[in-house]
């Protein structure tokens, strides 16, 4: 075994005190990816867009492999960087929901809220958005006008401006009415350390409100299931709720909005990136009765169903009570609850303590059991 010669440095071991906090997090992420994922399918399937295992394999095996750089490497919902002394967050997203209009919202406010929320959960204050429209020939102008008005209202509520955009039209039958792609930029107001790789054993897992509202609303709005329920999408901007949480719990480790793949995907990402276990309490997870009923009929676990106005927070145990109190006192956070804890073993796994007293593994979503929901 050769030794380091003069003028060389021996790399510090992962977890070494000589590594900064950010370097330790990146080291854990790199170790988790040493077994490189592969896309075994020859063609793209709907499962590749469902937010589960197939999506993660596609992102890591194709996009990360080709485009790898330090800003992309953490695979957070946004990139964080400094330009001219200003610390910024930048994100992009596409929206292909069907139907375009649904109880509680439409593709327009969904596009705005989804983008500002990806910025907000990084600790950034959203400022500006872009919006690109792909329209199908024959799409009603009245519907497009309604979507634009919805975007304008959502942007006003979120405190952002849509400042640039683009429009393309494709041949009839080559689209699905209207697709929207947005990008957003915000200014970082915290220390920028929030991330999936920051969780520690003993931390508390908090969800900001009832889960599954949006996904179930979309499934029922398609009219294919023959189920009627009094439920509406939870689409909403999360900026104010995030600020209330961070003011009350400044040691918060991680924030993620629970969109594609739901809460289950978020906590699996945390468990993998932080090399910890996450133990959830099934009885503590807030789910509206209408969502529970629909999920039972369809054989779907609400933990996998998408939200568009909820986040998952990982907070130190000493700040959990203050965090929940702050959320309860803010509009949109009345249903917040502590739903589990972070444990040391078994690393990388999510366990659920069931209502029947048993324990089961909550894996990342496999396949594509749900319709498009964002």
Write the layout of secondary structure elements.
Layout: H1 21-32, H2 53-67, E1 79-83, E2 86-95, E3 101-102, E4 105-106, H3 107-120, E5 124-136, H4 141-158, E6 161-170, E7 178-188, E8 204-207, H5 213-221, H6 239-248, E9 254-257, H7 262-274, E10 277-281, H8 289-298, E11 311-315, H9 320-328, E12 337-343, E13 350-353, E14 359-361
Parallel strand pairs: 5-6, 10-13
Antiparallel strand pairs: 1-2, 2-7, 3-4, 5-7, 8-11, 8-12, 9-11, 10-12, 13-14
Description of the structure:
- With 374 residues, the chain is of the alpha+beta class.
- The protein folds into 2 domains: 76-192, PurM-like, N-terminal domain (60s Ribosomal Protein L30, Chain: A, 2-Layer Sandwich), CATH 3.30.1330; 196-361, Phosphoribosyl-aminoimidazole Synthetase, Chain A, domain 2 (Alpha-Beta Complex), CATH 3.90.650.10.
- Helix content is 29%, strand content 23%.
- The strands form 3 sheets. It has a 7-stranded mixed beta sheet with strand order 9-11-8-12-10-13-14. A 5-stranded mixed beta sheet has the order 1-2-7-5-6, with helices on one face. The chain has a two-stranded antiparallel sheet with strand order 3-4.
- Helix 3 (107-120) runs parallel beside helix 4 (141-158) and helix 6 (239-248) packs antiparallel against helix 9.
- The protein is globular and about 55 Å long.
What is the oligomeric state here?
A: single chain
* Total DSSP helices: 9
> According to CATH, what is the class of the largest domain?
Alpha Beta
Known CATH architecture of the largest domain: Alpha-Beta Complex
Helix content: 25-40%
The end-to-end span amounts to 54 Å
- Mean pLDDT score: 89
What is the H level of CATH, i.e. the homologous superfamily of the largest domain?
A: PurM-like C-terminal domain
Strand content: 15-25%
Rg calculated over all Cα atoms: 21 Å
What is the strand arrangement across the widest sheet? 9-11-8-12-10-13-14
Strand runs, count: 14
Query: Structural class, from secondary structure content?
Result: alpha+beta
Order of helices and strands: HHEEEEHEHEEEHHEHEHEHEEE
Largest beta sheet, briefly? 7 strands, mixed
Sum up the overall morphology in one term: globular
The poorly predicted ranges are 1-15
The total tally of domains equals 2
Q: Which fold name corresponds to the CATH topology of the largest domain?
A: Phosphoribosyl-aminoimidazole Synthetase, Chain A, domain 2
